[in-house]
Design goal:
It contains 5 helices and 5 strands. The chain is of the alpha/beta class and about 130 residues long.
Length: about 130
């Protein structure tokens, strides 16, 4: 991938439906399979702030949470900063992520789709 970085975004509300540990294990497998890829692991924690805390403890690069009018996000962001994790309240731009909305597909199909995405990014490199 050279210096072309991208975000690996979990399925929508994955912290709530699958849990932070599920995504952390998946990210570990991807990092082992594609060690040269530079990607940011982003867990969608909307609907479950406790999932964001777990994701931070598990070493995720970023978590997505709903914006709030109180200071909970600021406190969460402070905890995250200490663990080199970002807290975001909006989805990243679609051209910078690999959306894992198809997480119920068989492993071989997920591998094929991820490889196709990576190959597409490579073809865009100068």
């Amino acid at each position: 991938m050279g210096d072309r970085a991208f975000g690996l975004l979990s399925a929508e509300h994955a912290a709530q439906t699958h849990g932070a540990q599920w995504f952390a294990d998946l990210v570990k497998l991807v990092r082992e399979e594609f060690p040269a890829c530079d990607f940011t692991a982003i867990l969608d924690c909307r609907g479950r702030v406790s999932g964001a805390l777990a994701a931070i403890e598990l070493g995720m690069d970023a978590v997505i949470v709903e914006p709030t009018s109180d200071n909970r996000i600021e406190k969460l962001a402070d905890i995250a900063r200490q663990a080199n994790c970002s807290v975001i309240t909006d989805l990243p731009a679609t051209d910078t992520i690999y959306q894992m909305a198809d997480d119920l597909l068989p492993d071989h199909e997920l591998d094929r789709r991820l490889r196709a995405h990576i190959d597409g990014l490579r073809s865009q490199m100068p």
